[in-house]
Amino acid sequence: MKILGIIPARYASTRFPGKPLVDITGKVMIQRVYEQCVKCPSLDEVIVATDDERILNHIHSFGGKAVMTSADHQSGTDRCAEVAANHPEYDVVINIQGDEPYIDPVQISKVAACFTSKDVEIATLIKKITQPDDLHNANSPKVIINKLGEAIYFSRSAIPHIRGREPEQWLSHFNYFKHIGIYGFRADVLQHVTRLPISSLEKAESLEQLRWIENGYRIKLAETELETQAVDTPEDLQKLPQ
């Protein structure tokens, strides 16, 4: 089984323009993500997929692999699909977020390991929630899990609702999990899901994975105990290790 890691990197971020090229203690963010990914033994190749020549040129400047993709893509998944279509030799594609400069290669390997089962179509990561603030944070999607270790539903709300208990007590009565946004796809499945129209659930929650579930795709979940440190805004840079 050959696995391709793709890091989508768009320059014109709404909340943080130029984010991939922001300096983090001597190296730009996209370089740090790339270097963490190439440490992962599960990946046969790593490619940055971008729509900006500044990002492309920087990746090439330190010997990394990067390709230009369309500026019209609506999501990183769409950008990954364009690159993967030009690399049919790979069986599995892993979409790695370009704003997690210290992503642990072990997390990537956990997603890759899901595909040892031939039944797995899509895989992603989850982490147990331990703090009420995380549970009730709408910017941190939660996931409901079935007995097979697959996603039933993703939501920005804390579900299930614990009847008869105050929200700050819910963690004492149910195991909640947050979603960590790294995705693995069978190569053919990636091409299929990006051709699906936006679904009603996706539109409601602004979570693209709901489109896949709504169309009958199964999403396998791997659990990690490692925390991620995504950079969504300039203020998030202050939270990174120095």
Structure write-up:
This protein is an alpha/beta fold and 242 residues long. It has one domain (3-239): Spore Coat Polysaccharide Biosynthesis Protein SpsA, Chain A (Alpha-Beta Complex). Helices cover 25% and strands 23% of the residues. A hairpin with a 5-residue loop joins strand 8 (142-145) and strand 9. The protein starts with a strand and ends in a 19-residue tail after the last strand.
Summary, kept brief:
Helix content is 25%, strand content 23%. It has helices spanning 29-38, 53-61, 76-85, 105-113, 132-135, 187-193, 200-205, 209-214; strands spanning 3-9, 23-24, 27-28, 45-50, 66-68, 92-95, 122-128, 142-145, 151-155, 177-186, 219-223.
Unreliable runs: none
Report the count of strand segments.
Answer: 11
- The proportion of strand residues reads 15-25%
Mind telling me which CATH architecture this is?
Alpha-Beta Complex
CATH topology category name: Spore Coat Polysaccharide Biosynthesis Protein SpsA, Chain A
H/E order of the elements?
A: EEEHEHEHEHEHEEEHHHE
* Structural domain count: 1
Major β-sheet annotation: 9 strands, mixed
Radius of gyration: 18 Å
CATH class: Alpha Beta
In the CATH hierarchy, what is the superfamily? Spore Coat Polysaccharide Biosynthesis Protein SpsA, Chain A
Mean pLDDT over the residues: 92
- The outline comes out as globular
Helix percentage range: 25-40%
